[in-house]
């Protein structure tokens, strides 16, 4: 199936093409007002004060520290940042999918008003793959190599729909693969993951995630390791999946082109902390944290001729030994003495906007 055959694919750009700050804001008309309208709505998912530590031979790695965020029904919230910023750990904490070595603490991880931390293992399994669907970063390792694709999709249906027998679940698996654009689904359901291409495996993962009409989809780097043509198709498919289910979506990515294409609101993470939140249009037009500004400046722009890109200098910190004060100060062009000693709190800077920078007003 080509991109043109997927509903909505014509509107999907190749990731990266929308990365220009000016172009991105223009490509998502109404994004900022939509984000503003959501302020005050009851959240579908609420995370308060989440911290995650890993005990390693090199010491305690502070993977996530004091992260709070909310997602309301129907919106797409992108969590962005460099590798190691805590994006995936935050998402995995929601469904308790972290390894046993992880030390997790939070004031609340509430889905539809129920704190998921209080659920038993059997109760939580009813949430995973049911009202909360998960699209993992690497479908080759997430899929069971010794089960057919159809058996795995059908299993997700049987586990969450008590009235569904195996025959009905198998037919549902065929319908889902057809929905996500897998050609000849009646035959492909009989195949194993190694017989699917990377793009087809990702389609199968999306089919499993939406099998039970979830209220929330968590998509962890859904286009990683795919070529740009397949990326565009998968992005269009995610749009279609959300339209079919009406689900809210947490989109984890480091690609700001994807953010511009899909997101309503953006959460920027650095060194395990949230450093900025904003509607997507506002974020691209007027970033209010030096790290966000650096991410945007390091991307190619379609509206400006440049001889070379302007990357963020240095490297992300070692989270087993993070710097004092603001974790970004060793790489920040605005850094001053205060930044070396005082960690900036995440403060509201407008309706639906926050920033953790002592000098965010200078970026206004």
Automatic annotation (TrEMBL):
Q: Which GO terms describe its biological process?
A: peptide transport
Q: Does the keyword Cell membrane apply?
A: yes
**Which residues are in the ABC transporter domain?**
45-296
**SMART domains xref list:** AAA (SM00382)
Q: Which GO terms describe its molecular function?
A: ATP binding; ATP hydrolysis activity
InterPro entries recorded: AAA+_ATPase, ABC_Ni/Peptide_Import, ABC_transporter-like_ATP-bd, ABC_transporter-like_CS, Oligopep_ABC_C, P-loop_NTPase
Compartments, as annotated in UniProt: Cell membrane
Record Gene3D superfamilies? P-loop containing nucleotide triphosphate hydrolases
Instruction: Choose one Gene Ontology CC annotation of this protein and give it.
Output: plasma membrane
Family as reported in the entry's similarity comment? Belongs to the ABC transporter superfamily.
Q: What is this protein called?
A: Peptide/nickel transport system ATP-binding protein/peptide/nickel transport system ATP-binding protein
Instruction: Identify the species of origin.
Output: Asanoa ishikariensis
């Amino acid at each position: 199936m080509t991109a043109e055959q997927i509903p909505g694919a014509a509107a999907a750009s190749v990731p990266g093409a929308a990365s220009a700050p000016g172009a991105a804001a223009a490509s998502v008309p109404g994004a900022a007002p939509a984000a503003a309208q959501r302020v005050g709505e009851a959240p579908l998912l609420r995370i308060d004060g989440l911290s995650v530590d890993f005990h390693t031979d090199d010491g305690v790695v502070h993977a996530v520290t004091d992260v709070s965020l909310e997602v309301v029904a129907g919106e797409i919230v992108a969590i962005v940042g460099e590798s190691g910023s805590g994006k995936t750990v935050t998402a995995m904490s929601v469904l308790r999918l972290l390894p046993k070595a992880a030390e997790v603490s939070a004031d609340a991880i509430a889905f539809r008003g129920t704190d998921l931390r209080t659920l038993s293992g059997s109760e939580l399994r009813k949430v995973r793959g049911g009202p909360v669907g998960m699209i993992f970063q690497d479908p080759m390792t997430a899929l069971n190599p010794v089960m057919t694709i159809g058996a795995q999709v059908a299993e997700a249906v049987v586990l969450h729909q008590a009235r569904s027998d195996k025959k009905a679940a198998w037919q549902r698996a065929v319908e889902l693969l057809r929905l996500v654009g897998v050609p000849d689904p009646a035959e492909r359901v009989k195949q194993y993951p190694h017989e699917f291409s990377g793009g087809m495996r990702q389609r199968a993962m999306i089919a499993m995630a939406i099998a039970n009409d979830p209220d929330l989809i968590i998509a962890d780097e859904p286009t990683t390791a795919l070529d740009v043509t397949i990326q565009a198709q998968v992005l269009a498919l995610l749009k279609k999946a959300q339209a079919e289910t009406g689900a809210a979506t947490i989109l984890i990515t480091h690609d700001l082109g994807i953010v511009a294409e899909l997101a309503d609101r953006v959460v920027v993470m650095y060194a395990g902390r949230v450093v900025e939140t904003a509607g997507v249009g506002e974020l691209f037009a007027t970033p209010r944290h030096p790290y966000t500004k650096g991410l945007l400046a390091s991307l190619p722009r379609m509206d400006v001729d440049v001889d070379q890109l302007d990357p963020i200098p240095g490297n992300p910190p070692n989270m087993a030994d993070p710097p004092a004060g603001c974790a970004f100060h060793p790489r920040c062009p605005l850094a001053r003495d205060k930044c070396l000693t005082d960690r900036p709190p995440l403060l509201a800077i407008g309706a639906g906007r926050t920033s953790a920078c002592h000098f965010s007003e200078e970026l206004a």
